């Protein structure tokens, strides 16, 4: 905890105001056909980077511009971001202590390194940056609670792996972009958690580029105060399990696409035609059973509602027939 506290001031400054370098050539201005996503290259083809000021605290506060006090979700996100930054920088320090990086940093402070030592120092410093970025993204993913459907317009951050500080700053900048324009508190938390997932995926896709991170694979870090666990590069080893609670919907509560609703009701009836004694379903034997049922549509168009309606119908049929619904 003392090592984490040492980085709290830096973490506070990172969520208050930072200046980051971004590569404008990575993001295409044209969305991919049929989606809101834009192509983002993982390889920089431009030599010119632009600077951008990032003020995460102001971006979060802008969700409710007429309220001088932040809501609990707003405050929670900022606290988690600051705490995650401090933890990530502390973990980078642990990585340095467990490798040759710490001694090379001391040598480099006295005189610039040359030759093999310089190459090793650069390699380990980049590895340390990668570890700090992964730790920060994992912390956000584990500690931010949201049950909303993840949007599909969240972009990867413009990762920088020069130093651990640069790495976590690049994620702060990406988080700032992801939550900008959030409609309300629920949308804010949903977008923040979705961004953490996207950042983790992007980091794992780049993992093979870094030498020297092998020892971290077997590292186990547990912070009980936050209920945060990091087992190497496992995505969410400490993810808290929640009891599965199914919310049922009645057909009369579902409006909109009548064809989709009709097909969903039909599927529920087909499922309940199953004969448990003979272990047969006549719709399978005679044909016409919907083996594949795909819900396609943008967030908020009712896919989850249809699933809840199907589950509610099946639950009702099970109660009448005397079968458990599970």
Layout of strands and helices, then pairs:
Blueprint: H1 2-5, H2 8-16, E1 18-22, E2 27-31, E3 38-40, E4 50-54, H3 56-61, H4 72-97, H5 101-110, H6 115-143, H7 164-179, H8 185-205, E5 220-223, E6 228-231, H9 258-271, H10 282-286, H11 303-321
Antiparallel strand pairs: 1-4, 2-3, 5-6
Describe what this molecule looks like in 3D.
- The structure is a single chain.
- It contains eleven helices and six strands.
- It has 326 residues and is mainly alpha-helical.
- It has two domains: 230 residues, no CATH class; 71 residues, no CATH class.
- The chain has a two-stranded antiparallel ribbon. Strands 2-3 form a two-stranded antiparallel sheet. Strands 5-6 form a two-stranded antiparallel ribbon.
- Helix 5 crosses helix 6 and helix 6 packs parallel to helix 7.
- The radius of gyration is 25 Å and the shape is elongated.
């Amino acid at each position: 905890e003392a090592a984490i506290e040492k980085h709290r001031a830096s973490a506070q400054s990172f969520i208050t105001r930072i200046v980051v370098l971004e590569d404008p050539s990575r993001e295409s201005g044209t969305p991919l056909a049929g989606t809101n996503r834009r192509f983002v290259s993982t390889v920089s083809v431009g030599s010119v980077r632009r600077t951008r000021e990032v003020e995460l605290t102001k971006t979060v506060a802008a969700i409710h511009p007429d309220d001088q006090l932040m809501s609990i979700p707003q405050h929670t996100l900022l606290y988690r971001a600051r705490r995650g930054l401090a933890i990530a920088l502390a973990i980078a320090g642990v990585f340095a202590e467990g490798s040759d990086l710490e001694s090379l940093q001391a040598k480099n402070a006295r005189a610039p390194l040359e030759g093999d030592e310089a190459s090793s120092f650069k390699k380990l410093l980049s590895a340390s940056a990668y570890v700090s970025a992964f730790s920060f993204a994992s912390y956000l993913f584990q500690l931010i609670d949201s049950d909303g459907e993840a949007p599909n317009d969240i972009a990867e951050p413009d990762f920088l792996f020069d130093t651990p500080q640069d790495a976590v700053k690049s994620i702060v900048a990406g988080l700032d972009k992801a939550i900008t324009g959030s409609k309300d508190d629920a949308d804010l938390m949903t977008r923040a958690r979705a961004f953490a997932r996207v950042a983790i995926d992007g980091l794992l896709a780049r993992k093979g580029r870094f030498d020297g991170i092998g020892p971290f694979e077997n590292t186990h870090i547990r912070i009980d105060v936050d209920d945060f666990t990091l087992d190497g590069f496992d995505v969410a080893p400490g993810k808290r399990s929640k009891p599965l609670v199914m919310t049922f919907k009645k057909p009369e509560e579902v409006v909109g696409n009548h064809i989709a609703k009709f097909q969903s009701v039909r599927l529920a009836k087909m499922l309940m035609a199953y004969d448990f004694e003979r272990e047969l379903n006549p719709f399978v034997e005679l044909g016409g059973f919907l083996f594949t049922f795909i819900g396609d549509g943008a967030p908020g168009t009712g896919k989850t509602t249809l699933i809840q309606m199907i589950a509610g119908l099946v639950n009702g049929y099970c109660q009448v027939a005397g079968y458990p619904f599970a």
